[in-house]
Amino acid sequence: MSPTLQTVPARRGKATRLSAGEAIRIVNSHGAQVVDTWAFSADDMSEFMSMEHIRPTLGRIFPTAGDALVTNRRRPILMFEEDSSMGRHDTLIAACDDYRYGLLGCTDYHDNCTDNLHAALRQLGLSSPETPSPLNLWMNIPVDPAGHTSWGTPLSKPGDYVVLRAVMDCVVAMSACPQDILPINGAACVPTEAHFEILGR
């Protein structure tokens, strides 16, 4: 493992700052972990990478290497530079939250990506007025011809990675999704850690 790799602990979140031109390489270390990913403008946290704006900009629901990922003000914030996986990343599903796990039958608090995002931002002394829908790296949500969705297992393999390059100074936050009821983190439903490193210009 590269000595520059940092850990996104299983079921937890992590955030980091990127200067324009720098990149982040996010690694699916064990191969089946979904990593909810957000990006916010360093100058204004109310501007953020927006799935609702990315989908019409790209004309499809799966971003791929070479795509510009835009904000809610329709400006590129990250370039999707590299992808070693099969390229299945979700832009449809909101970040899980404690309400979601209540609907899935949990009666006690459950770790969730919404809280992970805000905890990760607090570690940098930052806050967001809302929880944008994340880019769910490696989350496999099949869509059939009738428009129905289902909860697929990831198509990725251990060590798969993506590289996202900052177009503007930004903050990138990640959550190693704690979902352990549905099989989005693999058939075993066991969340694991992921890793990331910052790459220069």
Task: Write up what this structure looks like.
The structure is a single chain. The chain has 201 residues and is of the alpha+beta class. The protein has one domain (6-199). It contains three helices and ten strands; from the N terminus they run ββββαββααββββ. The strands form two sheets. It has a six-stranded antiparallel β-sheet, with helices on one face. A four-stranded antiparallel β-sheet has the order 2-9-4-7, with helices on one face. The longest helix has 11 residues, at 113-123.
Topology:
Layout: E1 6-8, E2 13-18, E3 23-28, E4 35-41, H1 51-58, E5 68-70, E6 76-83, H2 98-103, H3 113-123, E7 135-137, E8 160-166, E9 170-176, E10 194-199
Antiparallel strand pairs: 1-10, 2-9, 3-8, 3-10, 4-7, 4-9, 5-6, 6-8
